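Recap from last week: sequence in, structure out.
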Amino acid sequence: MAALHPRLIERVDRMLAVGGRVLGIAGAPGAGKSTLAEAVLTHYGTRAQLLPMDGFHLADEELGRLGRRDRKGAPDTFDVDGYLSALQRVRERRHDVLVPRFHRDLEEPIAGAIRIAVDTQLVITEGNYLLLDDGRWREVAPLLDQSWMLRPDDEDRRARLVARHVAHGRSPDEAEAWVRTVDEPNAALILARSRAAGYEFDPDDPAIRSADEGDSRDPRG
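Predicted structure tokens:
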């Protein structure tokens, strides 16, 4: 894993210095959110913990009951109320918070798999819909002390998605079909309906340059 870029370290350090705690990393499927979140976690070590949005996937049993299993990953296939509650409790810093983790081999969330200690300085949450300006998802952004939106090259992003699905058991044809019919509609929604982030950049750009180097939309970003 590549080391965390100094520009990103500077932004996180600035957030922590003014009492911020929650860093949100958003982007379309395959944008590199989990990889970057792990890089942030590695850099800050025991001072940091992950709070992945993916842990709040609805279980396949519930998706089957709702008739949504064939589009798992869409905004209405998550427990957004549970995610909002976890973020709020993390911000309150009153006690440790237990949150679920999504197990990719099982394709199911595992309850209480991650403990965020009350004295954890940095909480990194990542997921597709952190900045989505729709329904209850729009309540997430105000709970983030800093927000990043990843905008990689679309061809690279789609190639990573296909490879991920193949690695988790789908055939190449099945993987291509899932990306085309499920992941890409979600990606289009994210890019069209997300509010502006504090910092937007291509995570594959070695310089980590923003599209607007004078970016000042979010003073915490």
